[in-house]
Every structure is written in structure tokens, then in C-alpha cells.
């Protein structure tokens, strides 16, 4: 079955400006600028000059003659744009805790030449191997103040922040041992925004 017309609406806050050109969405806000290429998804964007009855600017995302799967992508596109707006207004923060039974994990944070940060993990399960994780663009890592064995990963792009956290967690996977017994690693303990309101 085909749906003749389907539409989702994204409310754009006053302090955020949005530009869409050939399905490449650029969102600019108080925290910075984010760009997302959605040219592979066959949807139509309309950003009317007039505001809605509440005085807010609204972005319309619609699709004509879409199948059920095509209509499902509308909600995905809406969520992606909502995440971009949240990123440039509030930012994203992930907290990760070190978990170890016997060998304490040592984590060092270094700056690389290209301005990104490198996370260096030593003494995982007592191994001599040093694990390195390079953070993605716009991602900042720092040890938590006042909390032992915790790091905070912050940034504007939800994709980059969550992928950096996942890279750290996955590099500390326990191999060739019973993972029910060996629970060591770095795990995400809390997800939130940088500016809480």
C-alpha cells in the first residue's frame, strides 16, 4: 500500500538558524554549527518564511507516494534534525566509569597534532598492551572532577559523542575468558546534556 502524502514537522527554536540545500542540512546555534548530509533519503524539505500560530518556525519534512518503509524514514529524519538542534543548543555529555576487580585501569588523555584527543588505556586486566582510541571531530574528553575512575565525553554531535564512547567501550572487550566473571572495562554510566535546564 502506498501513502499519498505523509508529513512530519520539526519546530526550530528562535536561537537556531537552519539552511537546507540539496538535502544537506546545516544547523547553527549558540554552541556551534553542525551539518548532516541526507541526500540519500528521498524526502522533501520546506522551510516556510512565515511562522506558525505559536510564533515558532517549523520545518516540514514530507514524502509523496511513499511505501510503508519510505514513510518510516520520515520519523528518522525528524529525529536526526532534532538531535542536531539539541546539539547546537544544549550539547551532549556521556559519563563513563572504569570497572575493575583487581588490576586498576589507568586512562591518560592526550592532544594530537590535528587538535583531536587521544585516550590511552593501560593496565587493562594487567596486560602490557596499551590501547589507543582517537576521538572523533568535535569530541572533548576529560576526567570527572570529584569522582574517581570516571571520564566525561562531551560534544555537539550526538553521533560523534556516542561513537567515541562506543569505541572506548569496545576496545576494552574481554577475550577468551568468561565475561560473566571478568566484568572489567569502561562502561557508559550516564547520558545527558552539557547544559541542564
Automatic annotation (TrEMBL):
Q: Which organism is it from?
A: Neophaeococcomyces mojaviensis
**Keyword set for this entry?**
Ribonucleoprotein, Ribosomal protein
Superkingdom of the organism of origin? Eukaryota
The entry's protein name is: 60S ribosomal protein L9B
Amino acid at each position: 500500500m502506498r501513502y499519498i502524502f505523509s508529513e512530519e514537522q520539526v519546530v526550530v527554536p528562535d536561537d537556531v538558524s537552519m539552511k537546507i540545500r540539496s538535502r544537506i542540512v546545516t544547523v547553527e546555534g549558540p554552541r556551534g554549527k553542525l551539518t548532516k548530509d541526507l541526500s540519500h533519503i528521498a524526502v522533501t524539505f520546506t522551510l516556510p518564511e512565515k511562522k506558525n500560530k505559536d510564533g515558532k518556525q517549523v520545518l516540514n519534512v514530507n514524502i509523496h507516494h511513499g511505501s510503508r518503509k519510505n514513510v518510516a524514514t520520515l520519523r528518522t529524519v525528524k529525529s536526526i534534525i532534532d538531535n542536531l538542534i539539541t546539539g547546537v543548543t544544549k550539547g551532549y555529555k556521556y559519563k563513563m566509569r572504569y570497572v575493575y576487580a583487581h588490576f586498576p585501569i589507568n586512562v591518560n588523555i592526550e592532544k594530537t597534532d590535528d587538535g583531536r584527543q587521544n585516550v590511552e588505556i593501560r593496565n587493562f586486566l594487567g596486560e602490557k598492551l596499551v590501547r589507543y582510541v582517537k576521538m572523533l571531530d568535535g569530541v572533548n574528553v576529560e576526567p570527572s572532577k570529584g569522582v574517581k575512575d570516571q571520564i566525561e565525553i562531551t560534544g555537539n554531535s550526538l553521533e560523534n559523542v556516542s561513537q567515541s564512547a562506543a569505541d572506548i567501550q569496545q576496545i576494552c572487550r574481554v577475550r577468551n575468558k568468561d565475561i560473566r566473571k571478568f566484568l572489567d572495562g569502561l562502561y557508559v554510566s550516564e547520558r545527558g546534556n552539557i547544559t541542564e535546564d
